[in-house]
Specification:
Among the domains are: about 180 residues, 3-Layer(aba) Sandwich (Rossmann fold); about 100 residues, GMP Synthetase, Chain A, domain 3 (2-Layer Sandwich), CATH 3.30.300. By secondary structure, the protein is α/β, with parallel strands linked by helices. The strands form five sheets. Strands 4-5-3-6-7-8-9-10 form an eight-stranded mixed beta sheet. The chain has a five-stranded mixed beta sheet with strand order 14-20-17-18-19. Strands 11-12-13 form a three-stranded antiparallel beta sheet, with no helix packed on it. The chain contains twelve helices and 20 strands. The structure holds zinc ion.
């Protein structure tokens, strides 16, 4: 959303904000769901019990169709293959191993070159991803494919755990739904169109969290979805409040879930916490079942694991997840490098839940800490404050002391003073008076396990305000 629009939205009284959010929610409901949804979801649940050979046939056929469509209808790939043909290379495009790896940068530079020529990008829906690493990408989707994806999500993120999109739920996310510092404006908004209470992770002071928790109870929220770091903050406040708020399930996304986060969230909301894995580009997805195994969703993407030498590693070994999306056939991304690390099992493992979906090893992806304001508020989802329409590729937010924040970024050129001022304002709005330093670097280093640390709190424990002892856990 444009900054001026956000400012306008934040200036509205709560009732009007709720109407605005609900109107947007009704639009999203129309976009994501239709009469087909229940049938598509039921089909997905049936496929959960397929045998490996049934899956092999299905993914083989779908992959062949996607590769053929990419090679013949997608400008980027058509040029690529005609270049190879011109050099006398007769390799078949029907075999995935003959395709090159694709990185985010190529898609970011010219997203329209990945759209099939029988689609009109101007009539498609644009998903702009920016949150996770600060690398904005434009992805083009038809409504039909959006609905195919949301049906898979409905089946495996909700139905697996006994809830549905018709139940009332809460999402804890990085969107700013209220102006900070205005006491009368709550940090949450009810979205009638999606049956959803949107709770802003960046507003969660103890008092605000308490009103958010009351609102969750008032609206009869049955389950919560959100980032582990944001849910950990909410759980922390909920534990100190006198209100008890049992849930059916808490579903986490976007960040790896630590065992400590799982146990805190689970004990506060008295329910299981289920982890999911997915990429914003929808080239792969996986979800945890009731037995605690992470199952791949093979109809979302075909997954390979690559080592540092850019070659596939043997099953069981870990490396980067390289995925070919099977949902969006209008913008096919083939062998897309996700920058997340994991492994595929060496031998077929069965799960006590009875599903035949293969398992995914522990995923190392983005790691995000909680940062601290001078008045002791814990702020999760800080990269949500930073991301937006800025000419940056990757961003990392580091806090080494209270009242000081360092924004490390990669970009083609140094951020202009105007952009620096705008980012500083966004930080000050949340953290109060803060010195913001900008570091333009060629590359943001990964942690030894390949994780990308998007938000890092490096304040020594002895300098933390009281009651922050669990912060680094
Ligand atoms: Zn299972």
């Amino acid at each position: 959303m444009e900054r001026s629009l956000i400012n306008f939205y934040q200036s509205l009284p709560y009732a009007l904000r709720s109407v605005t959010a609900s109107t947007w929610g009704y639009y999203l409901r129309w976009l994501r769901y239709s009469r087909e949804t229940e049938k598509l979801a039921a089909d997905a649940l049936q496929r959960d019990h397929w045998t490996p050979s049934q899956w092999q046939n299905w993914t083989g056929e779908r992959l062949a169709y996607i590769l053929h469509r990419a090679a013949t209808r997608v400008p980027f790939y058509r040029d690529y293959w005609s270049g190879r043909r011109a050099r006398g290379d007769r390799s078949s495009w029907e075999r995935l191993e003959n395709w090159p790896l694709l990185n985010k940068e190529s898609v970011r530079k010219s997203p329209e070159a990945f759209v099939a020529d029988d689609c009109n990008p101007r009539r498609m829906h644009v998903w702009s991803t920016s949150g996770s690493t600060g690398t904005p990408l434009r992805l083009y989707w038809s409504r039909r494919n959006i609905q195919r994806w949301y049906a898979l999500f409905e089946a495996r993120s909700r139905h697996w755990h006994g809830v549905s999109r018709h139940d009332r739920w809460a999402i804890v996310g990085g969107q700013r739904v209220a102006a900070i510092g205005k006491k009368e404006s709550p940090a949450w908004v009810w979205n009638r169109g999606l049956n959803q209470l949107y709770v802003s992770a960046i507003h969660l002071s103890p008092t605000v969290a308490e009103t958010a928790i009351k609102a969750m109870r008032h609206h009869g929220v049955k389950y919560i979805l959100g980032y582990p770091s944001a849910l950990q903050v909410l759980a922390h406040h909920a534990r100190q409040s006198t209100i008890s708020l049992p849930m059916a399930v808490v579903i986490t996304n976007a960040e790896p879930l630590s065992e400590m986060q799982r146990s805190v969230i689970s004990s506060v909301f008295r329910c299981p916490v289920r982890d999911t894995y997915g990429s914003a580009e929808v080239v792969a997805a996986a979800g945890e079942c009731e037995s605690g195994s992470m199952h791949l969703w093979p109809d979302t993407g075909f997954v390979e694991v690559f080592g540092d030498n850019q070659e596939p590693v043997p099953a069981g070994a870990s490396g980067e997840l390289v995925c070919t999306g099977l949902v969006n056939d209008d913008m096919p991304l083939i062998r897309y490098c996700t920058r997340d690390s994991s492994s595929l099992p060496a031998a077929a493992e069965s799960c006590s839940c009875g599903r035949g979906l293969s398992l995914l090893g522990t995923v190392g992806g983005r790691v995000s800490d909680v940062l601290i304001t001078r008045d002791g508020r814990r702020v999760a989802g800080v990269d949500g404050i930073i991301s937006g329409s800025l000419p940056i590729r990757e961003v990392q937010v580091i806090q080494e002391e209270l009242g000081r924040i360092r924004i490390v970024y990669t970009a083609e050129k140094r951020l202009s003073p105007e952009y620096q001022r705008e980012l500083t304002e966004r930080v000050v709005e949340v953290f109060g008076e803060t010195y913001v330093q900008f570091d333009w670097v060629p590359q943001i280093p990964r942690l030894p396990n390949g994780k990308f640390r998007s938000v890092a709190c490096l304040i020594p424990p002895e300098q933390l305000p009281v009651n922050q002892e669990n912060l680094h856990a």
